[in-house]
Write a structure and sequence with these properties.
By secondary structure, this protein is α/β, with parallel strands linked by helices. The chain has a twelve-stranded mixed beta sheet. It has eleven helices and twelve strands. Helix 1 (43-55) packs parallel to helix 2 (74-82), helix 2 (74-82) packs parallel to helix 3 (103-113) and helix 3 (103-113) runs parallel beside helix 5 (139-152). The two termini are 22 Å apart. It has one domain (11-329): TIM Barrel (Alpha-Beta Barrel), CATH 3.20.20. Strand 10 and strand 11 form a beta hairpin. Iron/sulfur cluster (SF4) binds next to loops.
Length: 331
């Protein structure tokens, strides 16, 4: 699939649920209303839709959410997608972004299904800060999940959102901790998605600043490792692990964008930072539309992929740039 700007779309991110067992302050409001079940695609429908994308050239799928691993029987979808890895014209990689709370239960099953790498979100090493950022999370549970994933054979990358005045003083410690446990680390700038309580401009911390502070203590070596997304990666000479910086606000990454995002209701967003979307649930559920019709709907959507996003965090404009929460589109 080639979009109007010549970009090859080979990466699909799928939000398998909008629900979550945590309520990270930058991601969700405390009293979120979640989607009624009938609106949400069944696991079989998600599998069929992913199959259509794979047939059109998608090589990498990331399951996300909400919290993907709290969806009941999600492992069945993981197994079914995992079975497509390595087949001719099939999937090359299946990955997951998770908050880690279910990993002690599911890590072995994920590995057995063909998953080899996961991202686990953990913004801090301080249990009290973790509790306040996630509103009720238990850091020990997430850490146990990370260790279970490592023991199962999964490569783990830690995702941490950079939050001014919250985890700002912890990045040196987190780099050391990741080095000790053989983990990569990615720092993420807050994005203006969804109404949350508090003022997002107060949380925004430009990673350019974080990077130059880190350079006072660490040697960050340039790498040409790229994922087609907004992350830039460096090798930390002292630990041998990678550190990534996801900087949608300070760096424009759209020229090499290779991805689209599917929500659990079958809505396809061609860009994380734009409202335009295509409804794939209607053709998926319409018995008169066969596989060819579904593929045609996906191909038509690709032609609408915009050139780039227009994120802006502005102190004079407290409303989010996009009303949609990250948990809807999937991070
Ligand atoms: N629940 C899973 C997790 O936390 O990893 C997967 C979904 S979560 C929405 C995916 C990623 O998006 C997480 O790393 C999270 O920290 C990040 N995220 C959520 N809201 C964000 C925001 N407003 N700005 C930047 N990153 C955000
Ligand atoms: Fe849940 Fe992930 Fe959002 Fe935190 S970032 S509330 S864990 S979906």
């Amino acid at each position: 699939m080639i979009d109007p700007f010549g970009r090859r779309i080979s990466y699909l991110r799928v939000s398998v649920t909008d629900r979550c067992d945590l309520r990270c302050t930058y991601c969700m409001a405390e009293d979120m209303t979640f989607l009624p079940k009938r609106e949400v695609l069944t696991l079989e429908e998600l599998d069929r839709l992913c199959g259509a994308f794979i047939g059109l050239g998608v090589e990498k799928i990331r399951l996300t959410g909400g919290e993907p691993l709290v969806r009941r029987n999600v492992i069945e979808l993981v197994r079914s997608l995992g079975a497509r890895i390595g087949t001719a014209g099939g999937l090359k990689e299946l990955t997951i972004t998770t908050n880690g709370t279910q990993l002690t239960k599911l890590a072995d099953d994920l590995y057995a299904a063909g998953v080899r790498r996961i991202n686990v979100s953990m913004d801090t090493l301080d249990p009290a800060v973790f509790k306040s950022v996630t509103r009720w999370g238990d850091l020990g549970k997430t850490m146990d999940g990370i260790f279970a994933a490592k023991a199962a054979g999964l490569a783990v990358k830690i995702n941490a959102v950079a939050l001014k005045g919250v985890n700002e003083g912890e990045y040196d410690r987190m780099l050391t901790w990741c080095g000790e446990h053989g983990l990569d680390l990615t720092l993420i700038e807050t994005m203006p998605l969804g109404a949350i309580s508090g003022d997002r401009a107060d949380q925004y911390l430009p990673l350019s600043m974080v990077r130059s502070r880190l350079r006072e203590h660490w040697t960050l070596e340039e790498t040409d490792y790229r994922t087609g997304g907004p992350a830039r990666y460096f090798t930390v000479k002292e630990t041998g692990r990678r550190i990534g910086f996801i900087t949608p606000m300070t760096h424009n990454f759209c020229e090499t964008c290779n991805r689209v995002r599917l929500t659990c209701t079958g809505t396809l967003y061609m860009c994380l930072g734009q409202e335009d979307a295509a409804d794939l649930r209607a053709p998926l559920r319409d018995p008169a539309v066969g596989e060819d019709g579904l593929r045609a709907a996906i191909e038509a959507a690709m032609l609408r992929k915009p050139k780039g996003h227009d994120f802006i965090i502005d102190r004079r404009q407290p409303a989010p740039a996009l009303a949609r929460h990250m948990s809807v589109t999937g991070g």
